[in-house]
Design brief:
This protein is mostly helical and 220 residues long. The protein has 8 helices and no strands.
């Protein structure tokens, strides 16, 4: 029993350590992302936690941010859409980047790319989560402060994504920019193919349903 408890404690301690490492990654992105994957200082569990917190931050932002800065009719908000709106771009982006990076001799695996994306969202959580509460105690005239801080968090995340692509795949800056642009194109292609697939499936289902109804109508 003690051995099982020790194993459990070691796993929890490892997750907490790798989660704490995200603070180093966002302040030392080049060294941080290199060690994250090559020195195994990151974990998928920590990336999952950060992504989950980012999703919660996005939902709480819609729900609790002062109406002075965001006007949202909560009864019209679909929480599932908000969750998928965060998860699907990450998954599709990782797939596109992993698929295209192999053409550019990228060294990162899908796991490495996913972890890097998760850790790159750390500023989004650290900055935008407290800004939800700050928005309710500042005046409308101080809205510029709110806008600048939110914009700064987005720029910080973008810089971290770029640093992650450089370190994970061992790319130069120019090559990383090229792969990022190709990844965006790849994401659009994947989305188009998925929409086409769903359209074909829905048409096929509608055809068989109408065929079934026609057979039932003629027999009975």
């Amino acid at each position: 029993m003690k051995v099982i408890d020790r194993i459990g404690n070691e796993k929890v301690r490892h997750v907490l350590q790798t989660l704490k490492y995200s603070l180093y990654v966002i302040t030392h992105p080049l060294d941080g992302f290199w060690d994250l994957t090559h020195e195994k200082r990151g974990s998928v569990a920590a990336a999952n936690i950060i992504i989950a917190l980012a999703i919660l931050t996005k939902i709480w932002k819609l729900r609790f941010t002062s109406f002075q800065f965001i006007r949202v009719y909560w009864e019209h908000v679909n929480v599932l859409e908000q969750i998928l709106g965060m998860i699907l771009p990450i998954i599709i982006g990782c797939i596109a980047n992993w698929s295209l990076s192999t053409l550019f001799d990228g060294k990162g695996t899908f796991k490495d790319i996913y972890m890097a994306c998760g850790y790159a969202l750390t500023p989004y959580v650290l900055i935008q989560l407290p800004m939800i509460f700050i928005s309710n105690i500042i005046a409308y005239d101080e809205g510029a402060f709110y806008t600048y801080i939110i914009g700064f968090s987005a720029i910080w995340c973008g810089m971290l994504f770029m640093s992650a692509m450089m370190m994970v795949h061992d790319f130069s800056l120019g090559k990383a920019l090229l792969v990022m642009a190709a990844t965006l194109v790849g994401v659009m292609v994947i989305v188009f193919l998925l929409l086409l697939l769903f359209s074909l499936i829905s048409d096929a289902v509608a055809y068989f349903v109408s065929l079934y109804k026609e057979i039932v109508f003629r027999l009975y």
